[in-house]
Amino acid sequence: MAKGGKGPKGKKITLNVAKNCIKITFDGRKRLDLSKMGITTFPKCILRLNDVDELDLSRNMIKKIPDSISKFQNLRWLDLHSNYIDRLPESIGQMGTLLYLNVCNNKLTTNGLPVELNQLKNIRTLNLGLNHLDSVPTTLGALKELHEVGLFDNLLNSIPNSIGKLPKLKKLNTKRNPFPKEGESQLFLDSIKRLESLYLVEEKDLCGPCLRKCQQARDKLNRIKSMAAAPPRKPIFSNFVSPNSMAKESQEDWR
């Protein structure tokens, strides 16, 4: 540690440096990539580039994300993983266009997750793994568009039921948490997998072609089941002549 108790002095990011770090993704999005730059303080100059679609500040030494992050009103993708962040700003809830948020491998506690996270109504991927969370806010159940949630390597004892009821959830990683019952994590994952592949509807809710297709598939399945259940019949070979009955002198002919 430097003299006077201050932490390491990080690299200074100027506006020109930041502009040179803007890349165009394969789908035409503007990404500001400031990852692995040795940054210790959020560079305020990048707020002048708030028209970017994606912002990558991962693998730095940033401790605090300012409220001004909400000025990135077009942001769809925000990667803050592998820093020293212990709290997210309340203003993050104002970033309504956000689809992807990665804050994995930081120093976040449950108290460091603002209630305003539940305002990210469009978010699809949320990675909170490798932090110090001892519980998951039930309000995350309001994020109905969530497809993937990372909660691995935390201090969790349970998962809220509201997470399991998310209608579009496909992947949930809760590995390496101190669940009190062995296998609780896997049981929860199994329930998500079943929800992913099971769809129940009533016949009245199906259109004519769909109903006929389902009925045909059901009839086919029933036929297969009945064939499998029927006892095998003993084969009858009335006209069969075994090789030995007409054996020739050379057995090579029957090999």
TrEMBL record:
Its main location: cytoplasm. SUPFAM superfamilies: L domain-like. GO terms for cellular component: cytoplasm. Keywords: Cytoplasm, Leucine-rich repeat, Repeat. It comes from the Eukaryota. Residues 70-201 form the Disease resistance R13L4/SHOC-2-like LRR domain. PROSITE patterns: LRR. It is found in: Cytoplasm. May be involved in the regulation of spermatogenesis and sperm maturation. This is Leucine-rich repeat-containing protein 18. It comes from Loxodonta africana.
